[in-house]
User: Fold this.
Amino acid sequence: MEILVAVIAFAGALLAAIAAGALIRRLRDDPEGWLIAWTVAAVALCVSLGVIGVGYLMGFGTATFKIYQLTGSLLAPLWLGIGLIQLLSEKAPPKFAAWLYSIAITITASVILVADPLLNSGKMTKLLPTGSGHWGLIPDKLLLGVHVVDVLVLLAAAVFAGLRWRNGDEYDTDNLHAVAVIAPSGIALIGAMRFSVPGIFTTALFVVAAAAIWYCVLRPLAPYEDDEDEVEQERRPSPRRAAAAAAEQSEPTVALRSPMPQPMPQPMPPPVVAPEAPPAVQPRRSGLGDLVAEYRAGDQEVDYAARMTSPPDAGPSTGYIMNGRHGGGPAQQDVPRQDYSMPGTGAVYPGAELFSTGPHQAQPQQQPGSGKPSPSIYGLLTVFTLMDGSGAAFDRLAEQTVEAVRRGEPDTLVYACHGVKSAPLQRIVYELYRDEVAYRDHQRQPHVERFLNERQAMVLATNVIELNVNAAKVVPLPTAMY
Assistant:
């Protein structure tokens, strides 16, 4: 049994050392208070586990017992609780008070534990010794007081994180996740040090506490880092929440969302300004959700569900979803993965300027100062999420459709299919028409019907965004010669 406990202790010491190294590396880029506190706790757990392993192999003595008690019973639970205070507090006074308390207790208690003589030091064996059987009155009561404060801090952190999570954002969810892992580990660690727990279970609790620190730092506190460009957006709850609150106060549409009338110290903006400001939205996770988030420019409501199931001449051709009016074919099975390189399809007509005076009449080049796009221009942006393995087939179909549009639709100003570098299974089709009549003509074309029908088996989801053109410059796209 002694060999087994020693092996577990040494493995836990290695795990705690890795966690401490990860914390130190992160501290160089993000010197947060909770990282500093948990680094101290991880180092203390590493030393304590190493001493447990040595004690079970060679026997415990005065030095090994004091180091084990100093790191495992005093420093580890103390700095776990201090780390939670630094994580949850958004104001300086609680953080500063926590620093003063932790530093004072660490120095004072360490001196007392090191200097105080032990009781029954000659009766130690290879089994893990309990503190109550070897400490004098002052060290024992000092550790008891520190443990009581630690338990209260850990329980208060759990309650505070839960209350804030109920009405908070994703950062409060991360904080609750961290507290739910750290607080039980710290309380269990204190219980193992206060009561007579078998050495193998005490050692296992030390290992669990070290693993909890590593898990909290590497996983739940930074779940939004999708790529290297977002590394600098790691958790900083206080500055982000303050910036978000300032941004919401500066938006003219905040008053429209408020449940009660709010007094305005400054005159209200003109009525035409409020509709133009985009509505404030909560921060969302990066990835697919941001790319297909629904948004419609303009000030009129559109029933997209009804339009997607209507006949072709009653809605945008890119607005049909799978299993719609035309029916969706079954998903392709056992299709090998294709190369998801960006399609180079697109059609822009040199003679189809964005400025017009009639439905189908091109106007000569505008003079400086008269470059306002025609209000009749009609635009759409459609985001397709493809099924796995259908990228190449969709690109070929899109190229054929664009070529047909280029040959037979002079009133289609822009018709381009884009790939998305960060999302290989997404395609974005951008359409711009001289007016809505041209768009209806486009819908009735045979190649558009073919594009609509054949893409059903390739598309998993479709999102349509209707556009108003406020300003534009369109020139022919460069093409590659083969």
Observations:
- The chain has 15 helices and seven strands.
